[in-house]
Amino acid sequence: MKLSFTVNGTEHTLDLDSRVTLLDALRDHLGLSGSKKGCDHGQCGACTVIAGGRRINACLSLAVMHDGDEITTVEGLAGPELSALQQAFIKHDGFQCGYCTPGQICSAVAMLREVSDGWPSHVSDSLTGPVRLSREELAERMSGNLCRCSCYPGINAAILETAEAE
Length: 166
Ligand code: FES
Ligand code: FES
Prior knowledge:
Blueprint: E1 2-7, E2 10-15, H1 22-29, E3 48-51, E4 54-57, E5 70-72, H2 84-91, H3 101-117, H4 135-141, H5 152-164
Parallel strand pairs: 1-5
Antiparallel strand pairs: 1-2, 3-4, 3-5
Helix pairs in contact: 2-5
The structure holds FE2/S2 (inorganic) cluster (2 copies).
């Protein structure tokens, strides 16, 4: 099936088997290997990308379901410099092996937007105002993103610092 979508601001047209997942389309057909395949069963969040402003598990979504969509992967979050959230992950040591990190960051960007704007209208980690999140709420909202290195203290600190920035 023919499919056209925009990934990180660039339009792509692909001719894919209808069974190809969005994750495999991104990694194997577009060479965007930032999104990781952990469980391939919707359980770990390593494959999280942002589709139409909403965070999704790309391993559970067929590519052909995203015809016309705007997709953002971790590769699309940084400009000339790393985004504020990416820098905060480094500052707070929010990773060890790094395998879960692209999914954690994509998920957190969309989550902060969900909290600050209600339903997200566009993707950015430049928040329009401070977002107040308790540690409990943060843990619940990020519960779909597992870290096998258990770097949660650093991950949470990075997200909370970004959330509280104006
Ligand atoms: S690889 Fe998609 S949720 Fe684990
Ligand atoms: S940093 Fe290794 S799985 Fe999270």
